[in-house]
């Protein structure tokens, strides 16, 4: 049975807010800026995976450590795997520009 959407959203929001609070407590506004950059980095992986037709589980913030993007099925095509991997750092480069 699939998990309820409201529970997934509530859990994601809780971890997002907790991550921002921990980052702010440890590093101030710089920590919050880093969390935004991590979020955009993980979103790059998710967008690339969706582009190639893979089902994703979204991404989750891990307080004081970073984030994890999940794909629900194995990526067997090496070209797809490369572009999904590269989309995270690419979104970081676009943030700088």
Helix/strand-derived class? alpha+beta
Let me know the average pLDDT. 87
Termini separation (Å)? Answer: 43 Å
Q: Helicity range of the residues?
A: 55-70%
Spell out the helices and strands N to C.
Answer: HHEEH
* Poorly predicted spans: none
Portion of residues in beta strands equals 5-15%
3D shape: flat
Radius of gyration based on Cα positions: 14 Å
Side-by-side strand order of the widest sheet: 1-2
In short:
Strands 1-2 form a two-stranded antiparallel sheet.
Note the topology.
Layout: H1 5-27, H2 29-51, E1 56-62, E2 66-71, H3 78-96
Antiparallel strand pairs: 1-2
Report on this model:
- This protein has helices at residues 5-27, 29-51, 78-96; strands spanning 56-62, 66-71.
- By secondary structure, it is α+β, with helices and mostly antiparallel strands.
- A two-stranded antiparallel sheet has the order 1-2.
- Helix 1 (5-27) packs antiparallel against helix 2 (29-51) and helix 2 runs antiparallel to helix 3.
- The longest helix is centred in the N-terminal third of the chain and has 23 residues, at 5-27.
- The protein is flat, with a radius of gyration of 14 Å.
- The relative contact order is 0.15.
- The model has no long low-confidence stretch (mean pLDDT 87).
Brief descriptors of the model:
about 100 residues, alpha+beta, two-stranded antiparallel sheet, 3 helices
């Amino acid at each position: 049975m699939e998990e309820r959407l409201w529970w997934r959203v509530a859990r994601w929001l809780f971890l997002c807010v907790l991550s921002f609070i921990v980052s702010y407590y440890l590093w101030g506004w710089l920590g919050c800026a880093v969390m935004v950059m991590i979020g955009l980095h993980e979103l790059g992986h998710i967008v690339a995976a969706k582009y190639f037709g893979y089902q994703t589980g979204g991404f989750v913030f891990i307080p004081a450590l970073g984030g994890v993007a999940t794909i629900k099925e194995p990526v067997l095509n090496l070209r797809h795997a490369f572009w999904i991997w590269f989309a995270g750092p690419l979104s970081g480069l676009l943030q700088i520009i």
